[in-house]
Amino acid sequence: MSSSTDWKRAFSDYPGPYERLVRAADTEIGAFLDFDPSRRTNAAPGSVSGGDDPLADLPFAVKDNIAVRDFQLSCGSKILGDHVAPYDATVISRLTAAGMVPVGKTNLDEFGMGSSTDNSALGQTHNPWDLTRVPGGSSGGSAAAVAAGLVPIALGSDTGGSVRQPAAFCGVYGLKPTYGMLSRYGLVAYASSLETIGIIGADPATIEETLHSAAGMDERDQTSIASPRGVRVHSAGTSETSLPARAAFLAGDLDLDEPTRAGYQRFRSAVEELGVATEEVELSTTEVAVSAYYTIATAEASANLARFNGVRYGNRPIYAENPEELVRRTRSEGFGPEVLMRILLGTYVLRSGFQEQYYQRAQKIRTAVRNELDALFEHYELLILPVFPTVAFPHGDAGLSPFQQKLADRFTTLANLAALPALSIPAGVYGGLPVGIQAMGPARSELQLLEFARRLATKLPVEHPPEYQESICDRILAGEGA
Ligand code: GLN
Description:
Bound molecules: glutamine
Distance between the termini: 21 Å
Number of strands: 11
CATH architecture of the domain at 4-246 and 421-477: Alpha-Beta Complex
Radius of gyration: 21 Å
Strand order of the largest sheet: 1-3-2-4-6-5-10-11-9-7-8
Helix content: 25-40%
Structural class: alpha/beta
Number of helices: 16
CATH superfamily of the domain at 4-246 and 421-477: Amidase signature (AS) domain
Shape: globular
CATH class of the domain at 4-246 and 421-477: Alpha Beta
């Protein structure tokens, strides 16, 4: 596997080959909506620290709902289409100050709503393991770009699983940090109380470095919190930090497909081989969590997306008879069907007289989820559970219906409802498709989750897609593309 030093060399010493090879590979995958590695390389003289910073000159990709100055900010929607961001999100200014270079914007389900990236209005992204299948979503472009070796690291956003699920479908790591750990300033809001920016990467160490540079309080996001607890292991060079003594494995009727069941099993054996004691637990809130999630998420979405009315934000029709028609046509022509459906659902659950039946009930479930997980972390350092009940499904009708996709968010939405960190870890390849399993921990335990993943990789090595065995970095350093 290429180290971040290899990546930095391949990218900065060979910018021409890097750009050519990524463009060629991405004609098959469709990960990027806007790709231009040189746009920001020299854009801010003095901002690149060079030298010793482990992230200096490292290329990275960004989901197209996070603002990167001079790049498009489409949210995968026609309503924003050709909008270009005039400023950097806080995470972007922090990473570029550490010398990292944003090379492009990646495809997503419109406004982050979906699990396949097929809800994008701007094109399809294919899974590098099997081009007939979805990369997962909503951060599908970011996960596909990392899995195909186009970048070592990519940012996504996770409101109900959108970093972890595509990471699992593409066989890479995906970290959803504690709520507030990464500033949301510059992230286009879908459901503000649930979402975090997250990091998708080819290895835990680079995710850790990226998290370290991007995390921390931000006066522009009043929900932001302090950095992770504990000592950074990789940079300190002390690899023998302690592993958790006991991990809880979610048990009960999980209704997993065959490959996912096999991956979950193998994951557990690998954890035991590390010397961690495992015990099975059941959670009473798993089944209701997903309903609470969709009630809260759509309610918040209906409010957050009200700003796209053609007046302040949003592409509007060339001519409209009156202001009502302007707003109506902006929204009905600009939003895709999934987004329209969710705005309607969110408006419905917030309707006067219905709040107690839906929204307030969902908030009570949310509290119950939080209490149940807090109680669990009194006894265990880790909770292990599947990310999604299936492996990557085919595009279109042969795949899961929109309703089945929503039910399948039952494992990922728990961490969002409880504001806790969770990491999707590759757990092997079954019938040609990767399975990912998530490790969840108490608030601000990101470093422990990443260290656990790093140790686990010695027992359960990460595999790469057959057609993309070598990253762009490997290929350049082997002399290709010169
Ligand atoms: N699949 C979930 C949804 O459709 C998750 C989305 C997300 O995390 N942005 O809402």
